[in-house]
């Protein structure tokens, strides 16, 4: 009997959290996060303030819960190409294994919303910090004179910059195209480039 009661309570908690999360995201399509009140969230979710505070201490904690799930899935996607190998051969990665692109594709609505919100700087910081931490801890490069931390920073900014551009463009290209281009860009090291316009002196 006690187990059944706990299961009912667990389901109730899950339902209320889902409703509160969906309510916040829906309201964020209409107004900035900083202007949203807890009263608006609970009314939209058809709950009361007591239910809110039994789950979250603030609206920031609610949004943080949403983003934590997003970051958790982002990290899983980042690890996917190398989690089952001893040596990570970057130049041999098939485009389809770049699951960060699939992660974004699965979450287009929330990424588009957050990219337009006043919470964007925090989102970018969280994504970058999370990926940098695991990249520094889990990927070991040969000691060939390249600073590991600088190399990681350089690559993460490139990858995330491309992803953010894709989101801001309204997903102009297909996920498969972005995956393919990302793989090509990672390994592309041109030795020279033509200059289209000469500076006149």
From TrEMBL:
Highest taxon listed in the record's lineage: Bacteria
DNA-binding region listed in the record: 37-56
Gene3D superfamilies listed in its UniProt record: Tetracycline Repressor, domain 2 (1.10.357.10)
Name of the protein this chain belongs to: TetR family transcriptional regulator
Keywords assigned by UniProt, alphabetized: DNA-binding
InterPro entries: Homeodomain-like_sf, HTH-type_Tx_Regulator, HTH_TetR, TetR_C_Firmicutes
TM stretches of this protein: none
Domain HTH tetR-type: 14-74
Organism for this UniProt entry: Paenibacillus glycanilyticus
Pfam family, one: TetR_C_8
